[in-house]
C-alpha cells in the first residue's frame, strides 16, 4: 500500500452564466496540490499550507481539506493518522473554486492511499460537505467538475445526480481574476430565496439551450444561451467594472461572459485559442486601466479532473 501521494485538483468555473448551482467546468490550470502521508498516530494533521498568504488555519477542524478527510475516515470507522501539506496555487475567495479544489485533492489522496475504498465519483458528497464548511452551502458545481473533469451538470441534489456534458473541442475558457476578494457567503447573501416564474422560464430556456448547444457544437446556440437572469444582475455590483469587462469580452468576440462562480473572477467562453487570447487581452486591459491587478487564465475544458501527480 502507498504511504505517500501527491494530488492535483483543478480550478473550476461554476454556474456558467445560467446554471446557478447546477453547471460547472474544470480548467487545466490553476489548481491546488495536496501531499498526503499516512502516519502512525491517529489524527488528521495539517503540516503546512503554502500560497495562502497565511490566511488559512492550520487547525484541522477549520480547513476544508482536513475536515473532508476526517469525515471520510469517520465513515469507514478508521482511526488512521494522516499528515497533509496543502499548496494553494490559486487565489482564495476568487470564484475559481479554491476551497473545492483543496477538498477534492485531499479526498482523492486519502482514497488512493487507503486502496480506493470508493470509486472516484462517490467522493462527491464528502467534497460537498467541504463546501458547507467553507461557505455554509453544500453546492456541487465546483467540486463535481474539479473531481470528475469536464462540463458537469448537477441534475439533482436530492438524490445527488451529476452528469458530464460533452463540449466542442474548440471551446476555450478565459478567466480573469482581479486582485480583489469576495467571499462566497457574501455573494450568496445577495440572492433572493425565491424568483419570479417569468425569470425562471427565461433561465430554464437558457440552461436547456446551453446544454443543447454544447452537445451539438452549435456555437450560435451556446452564445445565445450564455445569459444569467438570476445571479448576475444581483451580484454584478459586487465586482468593480464587471459590465465593462464583460462588454470588452463580447466586443472582442467571446461567445458569452459572466461571473465565474460567486466572483469576483469573470469568465468568457470562446471559439478557439486565437479568439480566447484576444478576449483575454481585452478583458484584462479594463482592469489594468483601472489600476486593478489581475491574473488571466486561458484554458480548454479539462476533461480529466483531479489527478495523481506523484
Ligand atoms: N454556485 C455557487 C454560487 C458557486 O454561485 O454561489 C460558488 O463557488
Q: What order do the helices and strands come in, and which of them pair?
A:
Blueprint: E1 4-14, E2 23-39, E3 44-50, H1 64-75, E4 81-87, H2 98-113, H3 124-135, H4 143-148, E5 151-157, E6 160-165, E7 171-178, H5 184-189, H6 197-216, H7 219-225, H8 232-235, H9 242-251, E8 256-259, E9 266-271, H10 273-289, E10 294-300, E11 307-308
Parallel strand pairs: 3-4
Antiparallel strand pairs: 1-2, 1-11, 2-4, 2-5, 5-6, 7-9, 7-10, 8-9
Helix pairs in contact: 1-2, 1-3, 2-3, 6-7, 9-10
Bound molecules: L-homoserine.
Number of domains: 2
Q: Which parts are unreliable, with pLDDT below 50 for 5 consecutive residues or more?
A: none
Biggest β-sheet: count, sense, barrel? Answer: 7 strands, mixed
Instruction: Determine the number of helices (DSSP H or I, runs of at least 4 residues).
Output: 10
- What Rg do the Cα atoms give? 19 Å
Which of globular, elongated, flat, extended, rod-shaped describes the shape?
globular
Order of helices and strands: EEEHEHHHEEEHHHHHEEHEE
Which fold name corresponds to the CATH topology of the largest domain? Ribosomal Protein S5, domain 2
Mean of residue pLDDT values: 96
Terminal-residue CA separation: 14 Å
Question: How many extended strands?
Answer: 11
Amino acid at each position: 500500500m502507498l504511504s505517500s501521494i501527491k494530488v492535483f485538483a483543478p480550478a473550476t468555473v461554476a454556474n456558467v452564466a445560467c446554471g446557478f448551482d447546477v453547471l460547472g467546468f474544470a480548467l487545466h490550470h490553476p489548481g491546488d496540490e495536496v501531499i498526503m502521508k499516512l502516519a502512525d498516530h491517529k489524527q488528521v494533521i495539517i503540516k503546512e499550507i503554502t500560497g495562502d498568504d497565511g490566511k488559512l488555519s492550520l487547525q484541522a477542524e477549520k480547513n476544508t481539506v482536513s475536515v473532508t478527510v476526517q469525515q471520510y475516515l469517520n465513515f469507514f470507522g478508521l482511526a488512521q493518522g494522516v499528515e497533509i501539506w496543502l499548496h494553494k496555487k490559486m487565489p482564495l475567495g476568487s470564484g475559481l473554486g479554491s476551497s473545492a479544489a483543496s477538498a477534492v485533492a485531499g479526498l482523492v489522496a486519502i482514497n488512493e492511499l487507503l486502496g480506493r475504498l470508493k470509486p472516484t465519483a462517490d467522493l462527491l458528497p464528502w467534497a460537498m460537505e467541504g463546501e458547507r464548511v467553507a461557505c455554509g452551502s453544500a453546492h456541487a458545481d465546483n467540486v463535481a467538475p474539479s473531481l470528475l473533469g469536464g462540463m458537469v451538470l448537477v441534475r439533482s441534489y436530492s438524490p445527488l445526480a451529476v452528469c458530464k456534458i460533452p463540449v466542442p473541442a474548440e471551446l476555450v475558457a478565459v478567466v480573469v481574476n482581479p486582485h480583489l476578494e469576495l467571499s462566497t457567503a457574501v455573494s450568496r447573501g445577495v440572492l433572493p430565496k425565491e424568483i419570479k416564474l417569468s425569470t425562471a422560464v427565461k433561465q430554464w430556456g437558457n440552461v436547456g439551450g446551453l446544454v443543447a448547444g454544447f452537445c451539438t457544437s452549435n456555437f450560435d446556440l451556446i452564445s445565445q444561451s450564455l445569459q444569467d437572469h438570476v445571479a448576475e444582475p444581483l451580484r454584478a455590483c459586487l465586482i468593480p467594472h464587471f459590465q465593462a469587462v464583460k462588454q470588452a469580452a463580447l466586443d472582442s468576440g467571446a461567445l458569452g461572459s459572466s461571473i465565474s462562480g460567486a466572483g469576483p473572477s469573470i469568465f468568457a467562453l470562446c471559439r478557439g485559442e486565437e479568439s480566447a487570447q484576444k478576449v483575454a487581452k481585452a478583458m484584462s486591459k479594463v482592469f489594468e486601466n483601472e489600476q486593478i491587478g489581475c491574473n488571466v487564465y486561458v484554458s480548454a475544458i479539462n476533461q480529466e479532473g483531479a489527478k495523481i501527480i506523484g
